[in-house]
Protein backbone atom coordinates (compact mmCIF):
# COMPACT_ATOMS: atom_id res chain seq x y z
CA UNK A 1 0.00 0.00 0.00
CA UNK A 2 1.64 3.29 -1.02
CA UNK A 3 0.25 5.41 1.82
CA UNK A 4 -1.77 4.42 4.84
CA UNK A 5 -4.72 6.52 6.06
CA UNK A 6 -4.15 9.01 8.84
CA UNK A 7 -6.00 8.69 12.12
CA UNK A 8 -5.99 10.35 15.50
CA UNK A 9 -6.34 14.01 16.48
CA UNK A 10 -6.44 16.56 13.65
CA UNK A 11 -3.50 18.54 15.03
CA UNK A 12 -1.18 15.49 15.12
CA UNK A 13 -2.51 12.59 13.00
CA UNK A 14 -0.64 9.28 12.93
CA UNK A 15 -0.59 6.41 10.42
CA UNK A 16 0.64 2.86 10.06
CA UNK A 17 4.23 2.64 8.75
CA UNK A 18 5.29 -0.04 6.26
CA UNK A 19 8.80 -0.12 7.84
CA UNK A 20 7.26 -1.90 10.84
CA UNK A 21 6.86 -5.03 8.70
CA UNK A 22 10.66 -5.42 8.60
CA UNK A 23 11.06 -5.10 12.35
CA UNK A 24 8.06 -7.23 13.33
CA UNK A 25 7.70 -10.17 10.91
CA UNK A 26 4.48 -11.33 12.61
CA UNK A 27 2.71 -8.05 11.85
CA UNK A 28 -0.33 -7.92 9.55
CA UNK A 29 -2.22 -4.81 8.48
CA UNK A 30 -5.88 -4.63 7.45
CA UNK A 31 -6.79 -1.70 5.19
CA UNK A 32 -10.47 -2.39 5.89
CA UNK A 33 -10.17 -1.73 9.62
CA UNK A 34 -6.98 0.40 9.45
CA UNK A 35 -5.61 -1.79 12.22
CA UNK A 36 -2.60 -4.02 12.88
CA UNK A 37 -2.88 -7.67 13.92
CA UNK A 38 -0.49 -10.37 15.06
CA UNK A 39 -0.53 -13.18 12.48
CA UNK A 40 0.69 -15.93 14.80
CA UNK A 41 -1.59 -14.98 17.70
CA UNK A 42 -4.59 -14.55 15.37
CA UNK A 43 -4.27 -18.01 13.85
CA UNK A 44 -2.89 -20.06 16.73
CA UNK A 45 -4.53 -18.56 19.83
CA UNK A 46 -6.99 -21.09 21.26
CA UNK A 47 -8.55 -18.81 23.85
CA UNK A 48 -7.95 -15.38 25.29
CA UNK A 49 -5.73 -15.15 28.36
CA UNK A 50 -8.32 -12.90 30.01
CA UNK A 51 -5.91 -10.01 30.51
CA UNK A 52 -7.06 -6.51 29.65
CA UNK A 53 -6.24 -5.89 26.00
CA UNK A 54 -5.28 -9.49 25.28
CA UNK A 55 -7.46 -9.51 22.16
CA UNK A 56 -6.05 -6.25 20.79
CA UNK A 57 -3.83 -7.99 18.24
CA UNK A 58 -6.29 -10.79 17.43
CA UNK A 59 -9.90 -9.55 17.43
CA UNK A 60 -10.06 -5.79 17.85
CA UNK A 61 -6.93 -4.75 15.99
CA UNK A 62 -4.31 -2.27 17.14
CA UNK A 63 -4.78 1.35 16.00
CA UNK A 64 -2.89 3.49 18.52
CA UNK A 65 0.03 4.36 16.19
CA UNK A 66 1.59 6.87 18.58
CA UNK A 67 2.45 3.97 20.94
CA UNK A 68 4.87 2.46 18.41
CA UNK A 69 8.54 3.24 18.86
CA UNK A 70 9.86 5.14 21.80
CA UNK A 71 10.47 3.77 25.28
CA UNK A 72 7.35 1.62 25.61
CA UNK A 73 6.54 0.22 22.16
CA UNK A 74 3.16 -1.52 22.03
CA UNK A 75 4.45 -4.10 19.54
CA UNK A 76 7.35 -5.03 21.84
CA UNK A 77 5.00 -5.13 24.83
CA UNK A 78 2.79 -7.53 22.87
CA UNK A 79 5.79 -9.75 22.16
CA UNK A 80 6.68 -9.98 25.83
CA UNK A 81 10.06 -10.04 27.49
CA UNK A 82 10.89 -13.73 26.98
CA UNK A 83 10.16 -16.68 24.73
CA UNK A 84 7.66 -18.09 27.25
CA UNK A 85 5.19 -15.27 26.63
CA UNK A 86 1.86 -16.06 24.98
CA UNK A 87 3.09 -14.42 21.78
CA UNK A 88 6.30 -16.48 21.90
CA UNK A 89 4.26 -19.66 22.23
CA UNK A 90 2.11 -18.77 19.20
CA UNK A 91 5.16 -17.83 17.13
CA UNK A 92 6.64 -21.25 17.94
CA UNK A 93 3.32 -22.86 16.93
CA UNK A 94 3.55 -20.98 13.62
CA UNK A 95 7.12 -22.23 13.06
CA UNK A 96 6.07 -25.79 13.88
CA UNK A 97 3.17 -25.51 11.44
CA UNK A 98 5.53 -24.38 8.66
CA UNK A 99 7.87 -27.33 9.37
CA UNK A 100 6.64 -29.89 6.84
CA UNK A 101 8.63 -32.70 8.48
CA UNK A 102 6.35 -32.58 11.53
CA UNK A 103 3.04 -32.78 9.62
CA UNK A 104 1.06 -35.95 10.26
CA UNK A 105 0.82 -36.94 6.58
CA UNK A 106 4.62 -36.77 6.26
CA UNK A 107 5.05 -38.86 9.40
CA UNK A 108 2.55 -41.44 8.15
CA UNK A 109 4.30 -41.70 4.78
CA UNK A 110 7.55 -42.56 6.56
CA UNK A 111 6.10 -45.52 8.49
CA UNK A 112 7.43 -48.96 7.68
CA UNK A 113 4.94 -51.55 6.38
CA UNK A 114 5.15 -53.37 9.75
CA UNK A 115 4.32 -50.17 11.68
CA UNK A 116 1.44 -49.55 9.29
CA UNK A 117 0.11 -53.09 9.82
CA UNK A 118 0.46 -52.77 13.62
CA UNK A 119 -1.44 -49.47 13.58
CA UNK A 120 -4.24 -51.00 11.50
CA UNK A 121 -4.44 -53.95 13.91
CA UNK A 122 -4.75 -51.61 16.91
CA UNK A 123 -7.35 -49.49 15.13
CA UNK A 124 -9.37 -52.58 14.21
CA UNK A 125 -9.30 -53.81 17.81
CA UNK A 126 -10.40 -50.38 19.07
CA UNK A 127 -13.30 -50.31 16.62
CA UNK A 128 -14.41 -53.78 17.73
CA UNK A 129 -14.31 -52.69 21.40
CA UNK A 130 -16.47 -49.64 20.58
CA UNK A 131 -18.96 -51.82 18.68
CA UNK A 132 -19.16 -54.32 21.54
CA UNK A 133 -19.62 -51.59 24.17
CA UNK A 134 -22.33 -49.98 22.06
CA UNK A 135 -24.14 -53.28 21.51
CA UNK A 136 -24.01 -54.08 25.26
CA UNK A 137 -25.01 -50.50 26.18
CA UNK A 138 -21.94 -50.18 28.37
CA UNK A 139 -20.20 -46.95 29.28
CA UNK A 140 -17.15 -45.96 27.28
CA UNK A 141 -15.44 -44.73 30.43
CA UNK A 142 -15.20 -45.60 34.07
CA UNK A 143 -13.71 -48.52 35.89
CA UNK A 144 -15.74 -50.16 38.62
CA UNK A 145 -14.24 -53.33 40.06
CA UNK A 146 -16.11 -53.10 43.37
CA UNK A 147 -17.97 -56.10 44.85
CA UNK A 148 -21.33 -54.54 43.89
CA UNK A 149 -20.36 -54.05 40.25
CA UNK A 150 -22.39 -56.14 37.78
CA UNK A 151 -19.88 -55.81 34.97
CA UNK A 152 -16.52 -56.65 36.49
CA UNK A 153 -13.57 -57.67 34.39
CA UNK A 154 -15.13 -57.02 30.99
CA UNK A 155 -11.75 -56.83 29.39
Automatic annotation (TrEMBL):
Residues 12-110 form the TTF-type domain. Pfam families: DUF4371. It comes from Hibiscus trionum. This is TTF-type domain-containing protein.
Amino acid sequence: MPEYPKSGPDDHPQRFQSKWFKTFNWLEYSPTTDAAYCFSCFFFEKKSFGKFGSDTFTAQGFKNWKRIGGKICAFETHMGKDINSAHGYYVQSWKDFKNLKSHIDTLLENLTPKQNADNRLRLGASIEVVRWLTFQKCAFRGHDESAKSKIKEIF
